Amino acid sequence: MRSAFIAAACALLLIPAGAAAQSSPFAPLPQTPPQQPQQPVPFDDGSQDDGLSGRGAALIVGGGLLFVLGVAVAIAVDARRNAPTGPRRGRPGDPNPRGDDEVEGLPGERKKRDRRQQEKQKATAKRARQARKKNRPIRK
Predict the structure, then answer these.
(1) Ranges of H-type helices in the chain
(2) How many CB atoms lie within 10 A of CB 26?
(3) Boundaries of every domain in the chain
(4) Per residue in 90-105, pLDDT tens?
């Protein structure tokens, strides 16, 4: 009796599974009925809202410009506060490399002074080369 009950329960469980397996997985899908498009219902709450007024737009633009101007002023103040305060050093070839207020002499005099300084550096380098040559170890 017990085995007959188990066999009957298994048979009942297999029946729905067999019915579902009757359709082929490669068969075309069943056609769905076409849906009727619904007409949208217009919504009207009675108020006409045209968006932002001219005055509101002007206030927004003015506020934005004021904000940008404030940021620019803050950057300029901070840059001036943190700028070096010592004498300015010029670039090479600058007519005023030391940062003095006035340039000494005429351009021709500066060239002569630069030429003399260059000759002095050459003479110093020549003396150093001769001293190194004189102190070389003797090779045998």
Answers:
(1) 2-20, 54-81, 107-134
(2) 5
(3) 106-135
(4) 666 666 655 554 455 5
